[in-house]
Give the backbone structure.
Amino acid sequence: MSETLDSQLTASVLGLGIMGRAIAAHLQQDSLLAASWNRSARNDAPQFNADIHVAVSSARVILIVVIDGAAVDQVIDLILPELGPEHIVVQCATVKPAENIAAAKRVEDSGAQFVEALMGGSEVAVLQRKLPLYLGGDSNTVEVLDPILACFSNKRLYVGEVGSASVAKLAMNLNLAMQLEALCESYAYAVSNGLTDDQYFEVLRNNTGWNFLCEYKEPKLRQRDYAAQFSLKNMLKDIRLSLETEETDHGLALLKQTEKIYAAAEQAGLGEEDMIALYKRINNS
């Protein structure tokens, strides 16, 4: 690919949820957005075009930012007629590794290229342009994409071939899912036994258990702010994807129990709230 073509990269964003909309805004600000599209109209989104075929044909890079594997398949069904050798499809939804491998084959059969770019953060990270990305696919294609991805990501980690980045993302999310329940239980235990928020978080900050997740969720726990940065239902989806695809010898016992906790919270009507809504299942305060 020539240096001239590289300098002319523009992207269209397909899917305008929390993450897609923020990505589109950054690309627009950097003059790299060709179009944005969503299944339901988002006329106030940057460069919104209700015609997905126009959105695809007007850009070199196609970012798919939807919720799950079924939605990815539906979008690929819609865009395949427009794809050609000039296109790079970047799939950002968290799906099973095998689903991305199958999606890559469909896209590459059209002559286009395919990269998986799994997101290692949530709303705050993307708004700050600090979204970690786990990348899978041809390394040369990944390198070509860097000017686009750098608009909203400060850390881009190349993992390997298509499918490997999905494994990395699910491994990270199952870890976070269990940590988050542990944080909520630890906090609930402390405050129900008389510690103030200041006392608890001062001790935690000086304990080996302190990490970025604690820092990220401290203000939300203090304020009982359950507005979704990453929703409980989306984490439950990823937990289930991990359980469906794990290949260990004896199974993931703690994750199985964690799935039950998240499932009960979703059944209680907390699915649209932030993951820290797990706290409501422990304490009513």
About this structure: The first strand starts at residue 11 and ends at 14.
